[in-house]
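Review form for a predicted model. The reviewer records the input and the model, then writes brief findings.
Reviewer: anonymous (R2)
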Amino acid sequence: MDYKDKRQINRGRKFLSFFICAEEYCIAIDYVKEIMGLPEITRLPQTPDFIIGVINLRGVIMPVIDMRKKLNLPWESYGPKACVIVIEFDFEGTETRMGIIVDETNEVVAIPAELISRIPYVNSKIRSEYIEGIAEMDEKIKIILDISKVLKDEEFVEINKINRKMETEKEMIDE
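Model under review:
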C-alpha cells in the first residue's frame, strides 16, 4: 500500500450528507454528479409513485425519485431548501443517472472506516437493508444509505427504461 492509499484510508471515504424528514443521511460522494435547486418536474403516467417525473438537465432527460415516498417516510410539501441530487452509478453494466429529491443538503464529510458500524438492525424510520452503515461523528448519528439497495432490481430496470425512452425521443426530435 502506498502513501496515497494510506492517506485515503486515514481520512476516510467521502459522503454527501443531507436531510429527509429531519433525519440525516449520507451517500457516497462517488455517486454524486451535481446538486441543483428544485426544478420543474414533468410528471410521467404509469410509473411507481416514488418516481415523480423527469427533468431536463442540459439536454439529458432523467427520472426523479422522491426519497420520502421511496423510504416510506411522511410526505409533506417541499421547503425552500429542497433540492435534487443528481446521482450516477453502474447497474448491471448500464450507466444509470437519476435525481433524488431531499429536504436539504448539509455537507461533504470524510468518514473513516472504523467509525462506520454495520449492524443488522437499525432503529431508524427506514428499512435496514437500505443502510450501508451508521457513523457517529461530533455526537451526531449519520445514516449511510447504500443507494444501490434503496432501489430494487425491477425499479432500476424501470428507471433505465425511462432513461432509454427519453434518449430515443430526444434523438428523434434532434433529427
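Findings: The two ends are 51 Å apart (CA to CA).
Further findings: Residues 1-10 have pLDDT under 50 and may be disordered.
Recommendation: see findings above.
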